[in-house]
Structure formats: structure tokens, C-alpha cells
Amino acid sequence: MTSTNAAIYRTQASTPESLRTLAAYLEEALDQGESVVLMRIGTLVRGVYIGNPSAAFEDLTERGAVAAFLADEMLVLTHLGLNRITADDQQYRFMRSVRYIADRQVVVFTPR
Q1: Residue 102: its pLDDT value, please?
Q2: What is the CATH number of the domain that holds 14?
């Protein structure tokens, strides 16, 4: 998170919907000992998968989709590398990285 994005995030009265959504997927990934994989599947939505990003695409479990604007906000409010966020008073720590799966660039959020 850049200092500008961090300042915006810290001044909000409540947790942005994008971070609530990310937190819910991080909880699921943490329970399974896996990662959250965010993949572009069109111009308006992004697919969300849980699994090992080093495995084959077929080995990932599809968990739904999020609107592109929410996914974009997740990326604005986080950064590559180690992140710490608070969503509804719960602290989350995760690594954000970029990979290629099935010839598509994906964003990976791995709970720590």
C-alpha cells in the first residue's frame, strides 16, 4: 500500500467493501492452508479461486467472482509483498504476488 493509499484507507470510517471481500476469501484460504487467486475472466468480473498457485489451473477450486471495480480497489489498497490490513477490527497479514497460471496473469494473496 502506498502512503497515499494507506492514508485514504486509514481515514475511512468503515472497512471498504473490497477489503471485506478480500478478508472473507483470506479466511477461507487460511482454513485450507492455501492461497486466494484472482484471475481476469472478462472486463466486468474477476474469478476467485482457492488453492496452490503453483499447481495446475484444474487443481484450483473456484469460489466465485467479484466485480472488476472491487478487484481493482483491492489492488489499489494493497501492494506486492507483505501486507497488513484491518477489516472490521480483524487483522490480516498476507503476501501479494503475481504469477502466470494457464497462460494468464493472476494476482495471488497468500495468508501469513
Answers
A1: 86
A2: 3.30.450
